[in-house]
Amino acid sequence: MSKENFSQYGKDFQEMLCHLLLVDRPFADQMFEVLDINFLELRYLQEFVKLVQNYRAEFKVHPTEKIMTSILRTGLDDLNNLTQQQVRNYFARISRSEVQDGDYVRDTSLDFCRKQKLKEAMLKSVKLLKKSSFDEIAQVINDALKLGGDSDFGHDYLADFEQRFIFKSRNPIATGWDELDSITHQGLGKGELGVVIAPTGAGKSMALVHLGAQALMAGKNVVYYTLELSDTVVGSRFDSCITKVPLGDLKIFKEEIYEKLQDLDGRLIVKEYPTKSSTVNTLRSHLERLKNRGFKPDIVLVDYADLLRPISTLKEKRHELETIYEQLRSLAQENKCCVWTASQTNRSGLNAEVITMESISEAFNKCFVADFIFSISRTADDKLNNEGRIFIAKNRNGVDGLVYPIYMDTSNITIRVHPCTGETIGEIKLEARKRQEKKMKSKYDKWKEKK
Questions:
Q1: CA 130 – CA 316 distance, rounded (Å)
Q2: What number is the average pLDDT over the span 352-366?
Q3: Which of 12, 79, 368, 424 is 20 to 30 Å apart from 341, CA to CA?
């Protein structure tokens, strides 16, 4: 009986499989337990995989793309000129690209190979059955079932030595504020969670819209979950933020706005959920449906996390909030995107000159899982003058504790971050206290004059 092979899946599938065998060591560990080189119908792919296998067998480590470049210069002498050229051309192609539909290729190829191994074991068992070797039959079947199982036990310190020297890109998405991008290595990276802290009415939703609009204009796919406002209201805020047409004038300039939005390379999905009706699993399911339709998110914004419902009910609200933020970071890692959300401050932050993490509402522990946290503080006077401050409360990729003055015009969602003045929190509070005392003295003097 002739062996089956991967021909039924096509050439592109087989090329993607061989690419994965090079760049994904844990997957290669699984596949090489069950892969028969003859499952690949193309000679140049067979020879390419042999090079990977031989290197692993000789040096006990998985080759990197850099190592493969060296191997391909001298390790093909036994092959004819045509096959040598095909192998080199194939490697040149995959070196400039990423594997598409990697999960499908992994699951399908592994399933195919494990079934072939099980078939071989069953045929061998038929022969053993004549000898009544029941224990041996059980052993053969069990061994076949174990092959190709999950063999990723983590980072093997010696076997994965080369992996530690491979540059791993964060693929950050810029905030659009040069001052913040400079201290975060150009924004939030994939798998990272960012949090905006602000009291009610200070502009945290506006900040999330700004972050989404910047990503959208940079050609990224954006998903915005609103748990407080309607989806059309959020859409209008994006209109204003991108075009700088005031919110009150959007209907007047409808045609001009539409024309400008045609130039966007990214896509935006705004999904509305009722307050406290949805969990992180609700968002996870929605993202899966989007990916099934060909929409892969680069950035997800949740407005805002405190309004999500916890997956499981706990005794204390602070523990529920903590788990929500942990689940949001997990969502970012699973979807290889960045996630931004916002958090409400307690009453101490309502008219504070600078908001620190001490003012965060309910659960301080939710700060622990975030990669980047900044607060927005705007006093009553600041709102009248379109001013405010941003405080960098946490920054895993750079410095924190800095205070930046900002310009914020909520009429057209314009937020600009000015250079850091170098003022400390204590100096800012002291200056604010002096202004307050001066204002009170002025009022007292006027009252005294009337008397």
A1: 65
A2: 64
A3: 424
Instruction: State which amino acid sits at residue 387.
Output: E
Contacts of residue 283, Cβ cutoff 8 Å, sequence gap at least 6: 225, 300, 302, 308, 331
Stated pTM of the model: 0.65
Parallel, antiparallel, or unpaired: how do β-strands 193-198 and 222-226 relate? unpaired
Domain covering 178-420: architecture: 3-Layer(aba) Sandwich (3.40)
Cα–Cα distance for residue pair 237/233, rounded to 1 Å: 6
Pairing of strands 403-409, 299-303: unpaired
Residue among 434, 410, 8, 369 nearest 202 (CA): 410
Three-class secondary structure of residue 153 per DSSP:
coil
Q: Which residue type sits at 315? A: K
In degrees, rounded to 5, the angle at the alpha carbon of residue 386 between the alpha carbons of residues 423 and 359 is 55
The span from the CA of 90 to the CA of 48, in Å, is 9
Residues 6+ apart with CB under 8 A from 394: 357, 367, 370, 371, 372, 373, 400
Nearest to 172 by CA among 230, 211, 201, 136: 211
Is residue 101 within 8 A of residue 296, CB to CB? The reply is no
- 280-292 vs 317-335: helix crossing angle, rounded to 10: 20
What is the SS3 assignment for 195?
A: strand
What's the mean pLDDT when you consider all of the chain? 84
Q: Output phi, psi for 118, to 5 deg.
A: -70, -35
Q: Are 45 and 15 in contact (CB under 8 A)?
A: yes
Buried b (16+ CB within 10 A) or exposed e, 21-41: bbbbbbbbbbbbbbbeeebbe
d(CA 46, CA 86): 11
Q: What is the pLDDT of residue 237?
A: 96
Task: Tell me what pLDDT residue 415 has.
Answer: 95
DSSP 300: E
Q: Could you give the CA distance from residue 333 to residue 134 in angstroms, rounded to a whole number? A: 46
One-letter identity of residue 298: D
Residues 6+ apart with CB under 8 A from 271: 223, 224, 225, 226, 231, 286
- Supply 208's token pair: 């999330």
Question: When comparing pLDDT for 121 and 318, which is higher?
Answer: 121
Q: Check whether 318 has a pLDDT greater than 80.
A: no
What are the residue ranges spanned by the domains of the chain?
6-165, 178-420
